[in-house]
Amino acid sequence: MGDRNQYLFVMNRIEAFSGPFLEVGSRDYGSTQDLRSLYPGQKYVGVDMSEGPGVDHVLNLTSEWDIIDETLGGERFGAIFCFSVLEHCENPFLMAENMSRLLRPDGKVCLSVPFAWKFHGYPSDYWRFTHEGVRKLFPRLQWRINDGCLSTHRTGDFHPLDHEIGKIHLSGKWHRRRSRWLRGMVLDMLSLLPRLGLLRWLLGYRYILTPSMINMVGVLPLKSENMSSCIDGHRQNLAD
């Protein structure tokens, strides 16, 4: 977990999480943010696909459930942190299901996934996500969109999860409709440059997407009337 904004996302909700804790993708590569230190004296388990600092168990969370359960000693967790991991997972539906099974009732998954980011193979890079996609991955959990946010690569730069996530609009008309007259005038003038063969690589689009991550917290309900139907639906997704 190497993104400063992911660390801040947890810090801003530090009292919302209780142990025992599980961090998925916990290996420290030297620039990794240290979540373990936020909860001193509490049980904190780190798992990763390879050995290294911060890793208590080498574990693939798409393994058979019995292997996962045995490796973790049958533990059920109050909070699971999973940051910048799911895009590298070949079967994110199976991984999401296993993470849900590792939660205690009322336990929480704190998740950060890329919405728009460069290709970064470890060992490869397969997926990009929306907040609606996260809900589909974890149908057993309840997600409050207002408690989530989009973050960019700039430290402390957070935005709401809505239909404008990640967009930097390059249309003067779009800004004028929102009474942003100065921005609209500037972009109207800049829009002339592509016609002259200048900056077409940038200004030839209506909008661009900034590097951005989706950060969310999901809760496993204490009781759910439709739990069985959620599980059946999720297993059908895995089968498909």
- Describe the biggest sheet? 9 strands, mixed
- In angstroms, what is the radius of gyration? 20 Å
Cα-to-Cα separation, first versus last residue = 31 Å
- Catalogue the unreliable spans: 225-229
Indicate the percent of residues in helices. Answer: 25-40%
What's the count of strands? 11
- Globally, the shape reads elongated
- Name the average pLDDT: 87
Strand content: 15-25%
The secondary-structure class comes to alpha/beta
The helix-strand sequence is HEEEHEHEHEEEEHHHEEH
Oligomer: single chain
The number of helical segments is 8
Show the helix and strand layout:
Layout: H1 4-11, E1 21-24, E2 44-48, E3 57-58, H2 65-71, E4 77-83, H3 92-101, E5 103-116, H4 131-137, E6 142-143, E7 149-152, E8 158-159, E9 167-169, H5 172-177, H6 181-190, H7 200-203, E10 207-209, E11 212-219, H8 227-239
Parallel strand pairs: 1-2, 1-4, 2-3, 4-5
Antiparallel strand pairs: 5-11, 6-11, 7-8, 7-11, 9-10
How would you portray this structure in words?
With 240 residues, the protein is an alpha/beta fold. The chain contains eight helices and eleven strands. It has helices at 4-11, 65-71, 92-101, 131-137, 172-177, 181-190, 200-203, 227-239; strands at residues 21-24, 44-48, 57-58, 77-83, 103-116, 142-143, 149-152, 158-159, 167-169, 207-209, 212-219. The strands form two sheets. Strands 1, 2, 3, 4, 5, 6, 7, 8 and 11 form a nine-stranded mixed beta sheet that branches. The chain has a two-stranded antiparallel ribbon with strand order 9-10. The radius of gyration is 20 Å and the shape is elongated. The relative contact order is 0.16. The model is unreliable at 225-229 (pLDDT under 50).
